[in-house]
Amino acid sequence: MTTAKHTSPSSHGVPEVGNPPAFPMTRRCPFSPPEEYRALREQGPLVRVRLPSGQHSWVVTRYAEAKQVLTDPRISTDPTQPGFPTTNPESCEAGQRPEGQFIDMDPPEHTAYRRMLISEFSVRRINQLRPAIQRVVDQRVDAMLAEGGPLDLVEWFGLPVPSIVICELLGVPYADHEYFESRTRTFARLTTDPAEANAAVRELRGYLAELVARVEREPNDGLVSRLFTERVATGELTREALAGMAFLLLLAGHETTANMIPLSVLSLLENPAALAEIRADPGLLPGAVEELLRFHSAVDWVAFDRMAVEDVEIGGQLVRAGEGIYVLGASANRDERAFDRPDEFDIHRGARNHLAFGNGVHQCLGQNLARAELEIALRTLFERMPTLRLARPVAELPLKSDSAIFGLAELPVTW
Ligand code: HEM
Asked: What is the number of the ligand 1 atom nearest to the C-alpha of 297?
């Protein structure tokens, strides 16, 4: 890595030169990132794009440079800095960083929050949760079998499984799920009217502040209540910071996996040979899950908003302090320089080096939980519903193309 010798004063964004392509770009196929990514990757590891505000930013298109950006301490995730890129300047969250939202913090502030949570999401801890996850998955399969097909797998399985699991883990009442799921959907939709999206965020933040007040009155055995007793009551955390952490965990904990489960089911139904191999040898499932994560890269760029705080050279391109960067996770995971036949779905490729969970200090805190949920959900579903099949042709499946996190709006199945 070459470092530029002189740090320039912040230029408050990428200089507006020429007419670069508009960003973000849209996915039109459940199995592919936006079509434009291939050409962008050919153009270079860093390409200039135009955000909806007219502001310019860099996007990182290739794997090696994506990893560099995600691990370089000269590149920040703090959105309160002038020039930090946003795809939605009218959002009440733009340029803001509510207390406790550690995904938007740099070390050492970020490290202190992450340390409070790391053991809660360790492989060991998540292995202890596997029987509880299995119970949730079995209950959802029971419900589907009792209902009978055809039904929408997103509504009956993909969304409820991670939603119930994260509620149980945090100590959030699942009875409130429609409330927080609908508000999450509203603000995750890139086309939502800004006033409506802002109202949804405020309501969700209010809901989590109320949850913190509730665990103070009536402690339970969830993580939020435990953090209250161990960190808020001791003066280490404020109530607002705990509500901010709970907001991040609740959202990150359901919206991501909820999209990955239906996408994964679809991919396996469309690849019957791979599915037959996994059925015959369930030991292949963890590797298949890594490949599903790489192949779909449902989070793509949305968590990867960054800004250089010093001049830094990336892939031969000088990025000046104050310039915004988005890492295109879905492009990096299809980079032919890093993956052989990247557009092929291959459960044997050993895809664990993918960037679907990011890299560096912000690498997904919930990755062990997400892996366990995906493994248990897929294994159980295909074991207990061996004749599961699509109830609508792939070409007619409605996509969540306008959502910050990609997924299927519906997955009608029968058996
Ligand atoms: C398939 C499912 C999931 C995917 C694809 C995913 C993806 C990601 C990515 C790409 C990041 C990195 C953001 C960055 O670099 O700024 C991230 C961070 C994070 N994820 Fe996940 N995630 C998933 C599931 C979960 C679950 C189940 C949880 C549970 C609570 C979770 C909690 C978090 C948190 C708290 C962060 C912030 C970490 C930090 O800033 O230190 N995620 N996730």
From this structure: 5
Predicted pLDDT at 4: 34
What is the chain's Cα-based Rg?
A: 21
CA-nearest residue, atom 42 of ligand 1: 366
- Confidence at residue 94, expressed as pLDDT on a 0 to 100 scale: 75
Closest-lying ligand 1 atom to the alpha carbon of residue 117: 35
Chunked into runs of 10 residues, the chain (415 residues) has average pLDDT values of 36 74 95 97 97 94 98 96 86 80 96 96 96 98 97 96 95 89 82 82 92 96 96 95 96 92 98 97 97 98 95 96 97 98 97 97 98 98 98 96 91 98
Q: Is 323 exposed, middle or buried (0-12, 13-18, 19+ CB in 10 A)?
A: buried
Task: Give the model confidence (pLDDT) of 365-407 as tens digits.
Answer: 999 999 999 999 999 999 999 999 999 999 999 999 888 899 9
> Which three-class secondary structure string do you get for 290-318?
HHHHHHHCCCCCCCCEEEECCCEEECCEE
How many C-beta atoms surround the C-beta of residue 337 within 10 A? 12
User: Residue 117 and residue 245: Cα distance in Å, rounded?
Assistant: 10
- What residue's CA is closest to ligand 1, atom 37? 103
Distance CA 121, CA 31 (A): 29
CATH fourth-level superfamily of 36-414: Cytochrome P450 (1.10.630.10)
Which residue CA neighbors atom 3 of ligand 1 most closely? 256
pLDDT given for residue 12 in this prediction: 66
Residue 227 contacts residue 116 (beta carbons within 8 Å): yes
Domain range list for the chain: 36-414
Environment class of residue 392 by beta-carbon count within 10 Å: exposed (0-12), middle (13-18) or buried (19+)? middle
- Which protein residue has the closest C-alpha to ligand 1 atom 7? 357
Ligand 1-lining residues (CB < 6 angstroms): 70, 77, 102-103, 114, 248-249, 252-253, 256-257, 260, 298-299, 303-304, 356-358, 362, 364-366, 369-370
